[in-house]
């Protein structure tokens, strides 16, 4: 491992809860593996995985405060479900705290929770690795997603978006669906939905 990545891991190990740190490392290795399959740069995917939940140690209210202080746009849904902000706050830290000048890594961190239409390969890898990494608790449909991941990445993204929507709707809290989550679902459904 390169020194800067090792330092970053050591920092995250200190700041994140142990289970969150284990998840982070799981996402990094899963992303690296997917990079091997789909022709993304393996180290870049690993680094994006390491970074994806870097803001997860911050409370909901602090996330909102941080955004207001640093002039990060907060959408309506992000005021209701503040934890969604860990993605864009994390992306902010990629550039401004960790000084990683790869806008695609920041973007993969930014969209790792909701996805978005027409994602780059790296964005799809992080969105997916976050969902399937080995430490994830068993959720309905996970086995099907894991089976699809090395066959068809767009189909995998579609299945994840579908499952997430289903999960959110069954939580009786329709109003909390991020429009981006819906757009991701619609886009990948049109692309490859069956
Ligand atoms: O940070 P992690 O727990 O590793 O994973 P994540 O960043 O993908 O967050 C997962 C949670 O986010 C999960 O409980 C579902 C939720 N989520 C995903 N899309 C939406 C959402 N929550 C709301 N309110 N709205 C969404 O559109
Ligand atoms: Fe996350
Ligand atoms: Fe995560």
Task: Describe what this molecule looks like in 3D.
The protein is mainly α. The protein has 11 helices and no strands. It has helices at residues 3-15, 18-38, 42-51, 60-69, 76-80, 85-96, 103-110, 121-132, 142-148, 153-170, 179-192. α3 packs across α7 (103-110) and α6 runs antiparallel to α7 (103-110). It is globular, with a radius of gyration of 16 Å. Bound molecules: 2'-deoxyguanosine-5'-diphosphate (DGI) and fe (iii) ion (2 copies). One fe (iii) ion is lined by residues 53, 86, 112-113. One fe (iii) ion binds at residues 53, 86, 112-113.
Indicate the topology.
Blueprint: H1 3-15, H2 18-38, H3 42-51, H4 60-69, H5 76-80, H6 85-96, H7 103-110, H8 121-132, H9 142-148, H10 153-170, H11 179-192
Helix pairs in contact: 2-3, 2-8, 3-7, 3-8, 6-7, 7-8, 8-10, 9-10, 10-11
Strand and helix order: HHHHHHHHHHH
What distance lies between the first and last C-alpha atoms, to the nearest angstrom?
A: 41 Å
Shape annotation: globular
Number of helices: 11
Bound molecules: 2'-deoxyguanosine-5'-diphosphate, fe (iii) ion
**Rg computed from alpha carbons, rounded to a whole number of angstroms:** 16 Å
The largest pleated sheet is described as:
none
The share of residues in helices is: 55-70%
Poorly predicted ranges: none
Q: Give me the oligomer status.
A: single chain
Number of strands: 0
| Overall residue-averaged pLDDT value | 96
Would you tell me the structural class of the helices and strands? mainly alpha
Strand content: under 5%
Summary, kept brief:
The chain is mainly alpha-helical. 67% of the residues lie in helices and 0% in strands.
């Amino acid at each position: 491992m390169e020194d800067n990545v090792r330092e970053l891991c050591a920092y995250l190990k200190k700041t994140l809860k142990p289970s969150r740190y284990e998840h982070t490392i799981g996402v990094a290795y899963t992303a690296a593996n997917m990079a091997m399959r789909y022709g993304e740069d393996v180290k870049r995917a690993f680094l994006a995985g390491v970074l994806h939940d870097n803001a997860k140690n911050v409370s909901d209210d602090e996330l909102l405060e941080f955004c207001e202080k640093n002039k990060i746009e907060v959408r309506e849904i992000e005021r209701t479900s503040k934890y969604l902000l860990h993605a864009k706050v994390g992306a902010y830290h990629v550039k401004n705290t960790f000084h990683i000048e790869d806008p695609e890594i920041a973007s993969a961190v930014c969209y790792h929770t909701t996805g978005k239409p027409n994602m780059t390969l790296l964005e799809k890898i992080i969105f997916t690795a976050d969902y399937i990494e080995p430490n994830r608790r068993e959720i309905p449909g996970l086995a099907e997603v894991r089976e699809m991941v090395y066959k068809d990445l767009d189909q995998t993204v579609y299945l994840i978006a579908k499952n997430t929507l289903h999960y959110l709707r069954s939580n009786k809290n329709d109003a909390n669906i991020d429009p981006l989550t819906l757009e991701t679902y619609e886009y990948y459904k049109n692309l490859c939905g069956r």
